[in-house]
Amino acid sequence: MFGFSISEIIFLAVLALVVIGPKQLPEVARTLARFLNELKRSTKSLTDEFKIPEDINPMKPMKRPPAPTVTAQQAFEASVPKTVEKPEPAQLELVEQTPHKDSSST
Q: Is residue 14 part of a domain?
């Protein structure tokens, strides 16, 4: 209890008996006990206010959703390159190229 040994507790009890007196000692002890109980209750309620609820604790690791499962067929289709479709001939735009005249050769 508070780091006191038995001999120190006995010494404090005898000192309180001498200083306070035998008539007032029980009343002082009751008052002191009530004060300590009230102090415990108030500190407990104060610490309860500052406790973080489990569901919003920032230090708690978050649960990850399960990874999506990929079938062998889906993996194969994803790894095979898709074929390139050839455009229709009507979609091709023909550009007429004219020969470039070189002015130095004439």
A: yes
End-to-end CA distance of the chain: 116
Per-residue pLDDT 10s for the chain (106 aa) are: 468 889 998 898 889 888 888 888 889 889 989 999 999 998 888 887 777 666 666 666 667 777 777 777 787 777 777 776 665 665 556 666 666 666 555 5
Q: Which residues contact 17 (CB under 8 A, 6 or more apart)?
A: 25
Counting the structural domains of the chain, the total is 1
Taking each continuous run of H as one helix and of E as one strand, the counts in the chain are 3, 0
Tokens matching residue 77:
């289709």
Alpha helices in 1-106 (DSSP H): 6-20, 25-50, 72-79
Range of the domain at 21: 6-55
Q: What is the 3-state secondary structure (H, E, C) of 6-24?
A: HHHHHHHHHHHHHHHCCCC
